Amino acid sequence: MKIAIVYGGTRAHGNTEMLTEQAVKDLHVDRIFLKEYRIQPIEDLRHTEEGFHDIDDDYNSVIDRVLEADVLVFATPIYWYGMSGFMKNFVDRWSQTLRDSNRPRFREQMKGKTGYVIAVGGDQPLLKGLPLVLQFQHIFEFFGTQYGGYVLGEGNRPGAILEDREAMRKAELLNAVLKERV
Amino acid sequence: MKIAIVYGGTRAHGNTEMLTEQAVKDLHVDRIFLKEYRIQPIEDLRHTEEGFHDIDDDYNSVIDRVLEADVLVFATPIYWYGMSGFMKNFVDRWSQTLRDSNRPRFREQMKGKTGYVIAVGGDQPLLKGLPLVLQFQHIFEFFGTQYGGYVLGEGNRPGAILEDREAMRKAELLNAVLKERV
Amino acid sequence: MKIAIVYGGTRAHGNTEMLTEQAVKDLHVDRIFLKEYRIQPIEDLRHTEEGFHDIDDDYNSVIDRVLEADVLVFATPIYWYGMSGFMKNFVDRWSQTLRDSNRPRFREQMKGKTGYVIAVGGDQPLLKGLPLVLQFQHIFEFFGTQYGGYVLGEGNRPGAILEDREAMRKAELLNAVLKERV
Amino acid sequence: MKIAIVYGGTRAHGNTEMLTEQAVKDLHVDRIFLKEYRIQPIEDLRHTEEGFHDIDDDYNSVIDRVLEADVLVFATPIYWYGMSGFMKNFVDRWSQTLRDSNRPRFREQMKGKTGYVIAVGGDQPLLKGLPLVLQFQHIFEFFGTQYGGYVLGEGNRPGAILEDREAMRKAELLNAVLKERV
């Protein structure tokens, strides 16, 4: 079983990363730090005669790593009660991949995976992070991806997540679940 | 009373735009098409010693137009059950403005405004657009911005929104409300 | 096409009723005022050897009227951000009907229907009524019932709903839709 | 610190009870099994000249036990993606207590408390239990009650909750938190 983490944060070793690393401790994972790649926002050309054209950026190499994994962990700081713009831009591009003749099995491949959401925010994330949880519910449902679960943690200043014992413990539990699946 | 529309779409005269223009018919509005501006994603430097530094892009000129308005209409196509990446990147940058010594009254100014959300999607937007509505509930609550209302419309191919009579009618109603406020 | 309204309110001619009657104006409908019937709360006996036993109350006669309809309108005042206890007790009993050998096609029959939710509350119903909308999303999904739509109105003192022009207009629109279906 | 559990279930030693008892292990708590009391549904008389009149049932004795507690745990099986009708009927009656001259400090007293929600369901409770979590968010917000947290567990047949390790572990964590507060 292959695991890929899609990191949406911009701060190295941030709270979201700490929490997520707890969840994948001792596991071999592919870490995708979206911030390190050049990924253009989508331009909606679904309804033009020519359709989408190739974009010269890093998106394709990233989506191919995503497609290789069996388990996807979407790990994002909660920015304004949603996923980061970095992550949203990446997700938006999936609309293009859905029509990419080089990846005709995209939808079917996503269906076979299990997705997790890990998100850390500073303002009542257990409640105000729920729109993000619901958004991923619809995203996963679109593909038929199994929603494995989610961990919402609280933290603002660097390292604060370590004091959210409940979130850290949930990450440990997720770690145990993932280890069993390997 | 000044109205500004923050457009998050990428297609000119798209469904979201059609629906939104119905809501502001015969009104003087400032239309901000985010796609036409260069707006960098946020880099979270809140916790660094130096804090945020100035970004050389169009963000500041756009946020200043937003701040001049009394009524804000966030108009976005529903991409993957949320606002577009273009719009999310713009909203994310507000975290920087919250600490911008050139705009010390940002939070207070936002508090005095009324916000609306207009969003169009192709997959059961009246239900699957609700995470977006809830997200803006938290965003507006953060500032104390009044949530004036929202209009969710259904449409996929160009012009389809015109057949969503209920959404078009809601936009007309919003138009009447806005005209009374002018 | 037969329409049944399941009324969860306790006040005659209340705001919810006014709004709902606008939606079914000039249509022949079966009005079920739950308050007028004796409906026991469910007792969960799914896991006992004997299973559920017949309850001597009005539930069965009411559920049979529900089953005769093609369109179901669940009309409830928003009590504490949810449907009324009267309506919840009625819905809870569906678990018993799911195992009722006298109504073996219950699930299948519900699947063929279209459901609407009409709810009126006094505290920001367009936002705080959304948990109720989401709850019915799951309920309808369980059966495969089509979610036709929902109307959330604002009102507290008697007759106040008439001043919520947006809600009244949405009810008119729903009326037009229902008339076309007849 | 006093803890009261408001139990909405109908099955003795059901899954919800097992999960909740884990959360209050070794603590002195007042257990209120709503099913054991006679509590009438509310009749909305807020707008009549006479207002509410006394109901001859067990409600008042139960609400007084609730008011004596500092921590309230609302523990309910998830019936049709919401709290049980038993619990909803009880909550609905709060509208009457808000106008009860014998309990003039009701709202203020509720404000000083911390509330928890524990709920067990058989159909994807981590996702489909969220409307219930959101509903309590609004309920607690109404009073200013602090939302301490929630535990959603999965289980259908008797005892199944014990196999939901994640939920049981969350209940243990809650137990530790509550013990620290005592």
From TrEMBL, chains A, B, C, D:
GO terms for molecular function: oxidoreductase activity. The keyword Flavoprotein applies. The keyword Ion transport does not apply. Keywords: Flavoprotein, FMN. Pfam families: FMN_red. Residues 1-124 form the NADPH-dependent FMN reductase-like domain. InterPro entries: Flavoprotein-like_sf, FMN_Rdtase-like_dom, ISF_SsuE-like. This is Multimeric flavodoxin WrbA. It comes from Paenibacillus phyllosphaerae. The lineage of its organism: Bacteria, Bacillati, Bacillota, Bacilli, Bacillales.
